[in-house]
Specification:
There is one protein chain. By secondary structure, the protein is of the alpha/beta class. The chain has one domain: Alpha-Beta Barrel (TIM Barrel). The protein is 40% helix and 14% strand. The protein contains 16 helices and 13 strands. Helix 3 packs parallel to helix 5, helix 7 packs parallel to helix 9 and helix 8 packs antiparallel against helix 9. Its EC number is 3.2.1.21. It holds the Pfam family Glyco_hydro_1. It is an enzyme of class 3 (hydrolase). This is Beta-glucosidase.
């Protein structure tokens, strides 16, 4: 254990007072929970095909059924209402509303999100709508996906459709969730679709995703002038695995790909070194202005630090490394370090000058109900206490943080790990689809209620 990095404060709401408009919420994403993969006109996403290739996902799991949220969304809204969250971040499945990625929209798919949004508003939960959480329509992938510059216009048209349809009820819009993850894993490390290890393809995709972000901001703003728009970045300190200068250099490269290659052009108007020269061949006149569009807030997803090591054969200048055994780790092997979370919130707030919302934070495990039917996930509660305590410390140090969303409301399809890793506040028994609120759900409900009582006192 490093220092007191997993202190477990008895009362994480004690100490620095959070902003009066602070939002407590939960997050999910479409492919991870919706299921109904072939219902009501939805066509395949890249994850539908990728997950069916043997070896891509643990246990051969797919998102075909997932949590069946498409049919059980009313029950899931009821769970959120009982927990007491003020906001719910979800994503729209692009291939559900535009089955071919562009062209004719699908009224049945659009209607599902109408019902979801209306159900949330009916119980006082604010919808936070994310346009893209990794489920690119397969039809667009077959036309080049993020390597095709035309996707900027396809994405802008999709953003305009969604904003026009829901902008009368949705105020908070997200252009992308974790672009660094789906670009690096998809085009650089071959861990996600489209499964490439091609530095040139990665740099091309990065630039087109950034252009799509800017085009999406403009499209949303044109349809919903009052919209509050942000992009969500997975911000995690990139640390060298060892003490060598080579490992330190590898960590700097990973930091550029993971933490800076999207927010810096989007907010500051330039690509970071050492990647700027690599992306330059794909930049056309005026592109950086098209990317740097005014946004209203900065989304941070964070779980733990990440590690890099030197490897002379690594095409990208670093090799990914697991957390060393000398640090305290979660049940799924990720380092536990709330101080890193505290410090990055201060740094992000200072560097980008925007209100910050923590849009994902949580702990993965593989728990099950006990003999009494309860799920006593004490490790997750300890994690949440420590990290929310660190958030409060960051606010006391000047971080401009206005919200916190737990990942996730439900256990769900966790990409390459399939259903082996459970992050939910609510346990899902996949064969029956029964939902069981874990002890962490009850704890989070008490926290939210305590914070509400504090604000009125």
């Amino acid at each position: 254990m490093e220092g007191n990095s997993m202190r477990d404060p008895e009362n994480p709401v004690a100490g620095t007072r959070l902003p009066r408009d602070f939002v407590w919420g939960v997050s999910t994403s479409s492919y991870q929970i919706e299921g109904a993969a072939q219902d009501d006109g939805r066509r395949p996403s890249i994850w539908d095909l990728y997950s069916k290739v043997p070896g891509h996902v643990a246990n051969g799991d797919t998102g075909d059924i997932a949590c069946d949220h498409y049919h059980r969304y009313r029950e899931d809204i009821g769970l959120m209402h009982r927990i007491g969250v003020g906001a719910y971040r979800f994503s729209v499945a692009w291939p559900r509303v535009l089955p071919d990625g562009r062209g004719i929209s699908n009224e049945a798919g659009l209607g599902f999100y109408d019902r979801l949004i209306d159900g949330l508003l009916a119980v006082g939960i604010e919808p936070w709508l994310c346009l893209y959480h990794w489920d690119l329509p397969q039809a667009l992938q077959e036309e080049g996906g993020w390597q095709n510059r035309a996707i900027v216009d396809w994405y802008a048209a999709y953003a305009a459709l969604v904003a026009k349809r829901y902008g009368d009820r949705v105020r908070h819009f997200v252009t992308f969730n974790e672009p660094s993850v789906f670009s690096l894993f998809g085009y650089g490390l071959a861990w996600h679709p489209p499964g490439k290890k091609d530095p040139a393809a990665l740099h091309q995709a990065i630039h087109h995703i950034n252009l799509a972000h800017g085009a999406g901001v403009d499209a949303i703003r044109a349809e919903v002038p009052r919209a509050l728009i942000g992009c969500i970045h997975n911000v995690q300190p990139a640390r060298p695995l060892g003490s060598s200068p080579e490992d330190a250099a590898a960590a700097r490269v990973l930091d550029a790909y993971w933490n800076r290659v999207f927010p810096e052009p989007q907010v500051l108007g330039h690509y970071p070194e050492p990647l700027a020269k690599l992306i330059e061949p794909y930049i056309q006149a005026g592109d950086l202005d098209r990317i740097r569009r005014p946004i209203d807030w900065f989304g941070v997803n964070h779980y733990s630090p990440i590690f890099a090591r030197a490897d002379v054969d690594a095409a990208l200048g670093f090799a990914w490394a697991d957390a060393p055994p000398t640090v305290r780790r979660s049940p799924i092997g990720w380092q536990l370090d709330p101080e890193a979370f505290r410090d990055l919130l201060v740094e992000v707030s200072r560097r980008y000058g925007l209100p910050v919302y923590v849009t994902e934070n949580g702990a993965g495990a593989n728990e099950a109900p006990d003999k009494s039917g309860q799920v006593l996930d004490h490790e997750r509660i300890s994690y949440l206490k420590a990290y929310i305590g660190a958030l409060r410390e960051a606010v006391g140090m000047g971080a401009n943080v206005h919200g916190y969303f737990v990942w996730s409301l439900l256990d769900n399809f966790e990409w390459g790990a399939g259903y082996a890793n459970r992050f939910g506040l609510v346990y899902v028994d996949y064969p029956t689809q029964r939902r069981i609120p874990k002890e962490s759900a009850h704890w989070y409900a008490r926290l939210i209620n305590s914070e509400a009582m504090r604000e009125v006192s």
